[in-house]
Write a structure and sequence with these properties.
heterodimer; A: about 120 residues; mainly beta; seven-stranded mixed β-sheet; four-stranded antiparallel β-sheet; B: about 110 residues; six-stranded mixed β-sheet; about 0% helix
């Protein structure tokens, strides 16, 4: 089936630095990719929808200048957490649609820890 | 708006016990319904799905039936194993064309003890 590869799986960075998370669709083209953030003991919160070749659509309350999303090709979407702070520490997951009637394929997630 | 309500966990069961995780939803229209599973330290994996009323999704011994009359999609398994320990998310997606947002429940942690 469809596979989305997400890297890195874990990253620890210093406060004030930027971190880039990549999601690649390995055997299909993903014109749309979704970025989620998962808080402890809470569900997934949709942060933004990235569309190949156009600007991402951000959900209300998500800072677009802090969470930069780029979807430059049909197989790659990136999320860059800029000037990271400890409160940005979280589990970030990307996903891509499998099809009109199907579900979504998820990446394996990235555990970001900002110290 | 759309919403998904799951039973709060954690749910702790002994091996070979019967599992039910309740899930109800509210939606304007006719959603597709999903169960996702998240094993420790990993991302989400699709467990099963149902796209219309009365459909039954099944996988790895898990089942869920799309009940329109009760707006429910409860997850069941007849005999759980330790390896089933994970967090289970119920989710819905609208069948209105294009790629719609998926609405997730808060997740239910299942712990199976030997």
């Amino acid at each position: 089936g469809a596979v989305v590869s997400q890297h890195p799986s874990r990253v620890i960075c210093k406060s004030g630095t930027s971190v880039k998370i990549e999601c690649r669709s390995l055997d299909f083209q993903a014109t749309t990719m979704f970025w989620y953030r998962q808080f402890p003991k809470k569900s997934l919160m949709l942060m933004a929808t990235s569309n190949e070749g156009s600007k991402a659509t951000y959900e209300q309350g998500v800072e677009k200048d802090k969470f930069l999303i780029n979807h430059a090709s049909l197989t790659l979407s990136t999320l860059t957490v800029t000037s990271a702070h400890p409160e940005d520490s979280s589990f970030y997951i990307c996903s891509a649609p499998e099809g009109q009637a199907g579900g979504y394929t998820f990446g394996s997630g990235t555990r970001l820890t900002v110290v | 708006g759309n919403s998904v309500t799951q039973m709060e966990g954690p749910v702790t069961l002994s091996e070979e016990a019967f599992l039910t995780i309740n899930c109800t939803y509210t939606a304007t229209g006719y959603p597709s319904l999903f169960w996702y599973v998240q094993y420790p330290g990993e991302g989400l994996q699709l467990l099963l799905k149902a796209t219309k009323a009365d459909d039954k999704g099944s996988n790895k011994g898990f089942e869920a039936t799309y009940r329109k009359e009760t707006t429910s999609f409860h997850l069941e398994k007849g005999s759980v194993q330790v390896s089933d320990s994970a967090v289970y998310f119920c989710a819905l997606r609208m069948n209105s064309g294009g790629y719609q947002k998926v609405t997730f429940g808060t997740g239910t942690k299942l712990q199976v003890i030997p």
